[in-house]
Design brief:
Number of domains: 2
CATH topology of the largest domain: Nucleotidyltransferase, domain 5
Shape: rod-shaped
Helix content: 40-55%
Number of helices: 3
Largest sheet: 5 strands, mixed
Distance between the termini: 95 Å
CATH class of the largest domain: Alpha Beta
Number of strands: 5
Order of helices and strands: HEEEHEHE
Length: 140
């Protein structure tokens, strides 16, 4: 097949292929932008919070007499008095205290940087053993 270059026809750019490419890029950026907006909306729902101090703390002298004081530090370690306890040790100690005096009040002294899960774990163990008079030590 012979091609004559001397014809009066000018070379053409294939517009259909160009339109297809531009449409494809447009759709790609539209979809990518909609995913980005969904991620931003999820970040707005996950607001960082700072737990407040208590403005209505009770005076410790008026609090329940002789509570069992459980201390939770910011690393999640639990102690009663000077004894640092594991989870199983805390469970046994709470079982003994519940058997000795079932109505004894419990006070949890949690560090401000302690994880919420650590405090909830202590609360669950207290409830499991029947120690339901629980207070949280706060500061003004």
């Amino acid at each position: 097949m012979r091609i004559d270059i001397d014809d009066d026809e000018q070379p053409e750019i294939g517009l259909i292929a160009l339109i297809d490419c531009i449409f494809f890029l447009l759709m790609f950026f539209m979809v990518a932008t909609s995913f980005k907006q969904k991620e931003d909306k999820q970040r707005e729902k996950q607001m960082p919070i700072t737990l407040p101090r208590s403005s209505a703390s009770l005076d410790m002298a008026k609090a329940a007499p002789d509570p069992l004081v459980i201390v939770v530090d910011k690393r999640g370690n639990v102690a009663i008095g000077k004894d640092t306890l594991s989870s199983e040790g805390l469970h046994e100690r709470l079982r003994d205290e519940a058997a000795r005096s079932p109505g004894r009040p419990v006070r949890i002294d949690g560090d401000g940087g302690a994880s919420y899960q650590s405090i909830v774990h202590v609360l669950d163990l207290c409830q499991f053993e029947g120690l339901t008079t629980i207070s949280m030590h706060t500061r003004r």
